[in-house]
TrEMBL record:
Highest taxon of the lineage: Bacteria
Keyword Cell division: no
Coiled coil segments of this chain: none
Name of the protein this chain belongs to: Transcriptional regulator
Pfam families hit by this protein: CBS (PF00571), HTH_11 (PF08279)
Keywords: CBS domain
Length: 211
């Protein structure tokens, strides 16, 4: 977050003299309270300053960087995830390619009965099998997918920061969003999909000053 010259000046005054009233800050800068109001709103909404009635403004101790980091840790995967596009393990490679085109996704999630996670299949997994010269109408995706327990996942309550970190660390484009099945050792129910597109979209929204 870039602060304007005036906002920087306000921050300096509050750091030195806080708690301090809006009236006093305006005086120090030889401006009216009304002129300062939008800046004070931005500084308090962004979490850099805190305001308490009858006390005034004081420095929250946060930097613009730490405010952004806190935001990324507070937004949950569940808030930005997409619906999962799933196929069964017996689905042919041919049908998987068709599904990718129809659904306009780059990663399919392979599930067994009950929507339980079995694996994932990417564009390149499918391309690779077409090079092998096998009959893609007969070959099931189960043969070429990345299989559990090697699938990297996230849960709805995980932060978007953790999800982005996993996408980068494991060099994959998407993660199944899962919930552990109660009373079942190890099975994961697929409840969504989180891709690099979701992260890019959030990035744009944050950049527009929403969120
Ligand atoms: P592409 O292969 O089309 O570039 P990815 O980079 O997502 O797409 O996939 C690279 C490899 O990682 C593929 O073999 C794929 O099966 C596997 N993969 C994709 N997503 C995951 C995931 N969430 N967990 C584990 N492996 C994955």
């Amino acid at each position: 977050m870039e602060l304007s010259k005036r906002q920087e000046a306000i921050m300096e005054i509050v750091k030195k003299e806080g708690p301090i009233t809006g009236e006093q800050i305006a005086e120090r800068l030889s401006l009216t309270r009304a002129t300062l109001r939008p800046d004070m709103a931005i500084l308090t909404m962004s979490g850099l300053l805190e305001a308490r009635p009858r006390v005034g403004y004081y420095f929250s101790g946060k930097t613009p960087g730490s405010v952004l980091a806190e935001k990324l840790h507070n937004i949950k995967v569940g808030e930005i995830k997409s619906v999962p596009v799933v196929v069964p393990e017996q689905c042919s490679v041919y049908d998987a390619v068709v599904t990718m085109f129809i659904e306009d996704v780059g990663t399919l999630i392979v599930v067994r009965e009950g929507g339980l996670l079995e694996g994932v299949i990417s564009r390149k997994d499918l391309l690779k099998t077409t090079l092998g010269g096998q009959d893609i109408h007969k070959l099931p995706v189960g043969v070429v997918m990345t299989r559990m327990p090697n699938v990297i996942t996230v849960e709805p309550d995980d932060s978007v920061w953790l999800a982005a970190k996993r996408l980068i660390t494991h060099e994959v484009d998407a993660l199944p969003v899962v919930r552990p099945v109660r009373d079942d050792a190890g099975s994961l129910e697929v409840v969504g999909r989180l891709s690099k597109t979701n992260i890019a979209r959030l990035f744009v929204e944050l950049g527009e000053g929403g969120g």
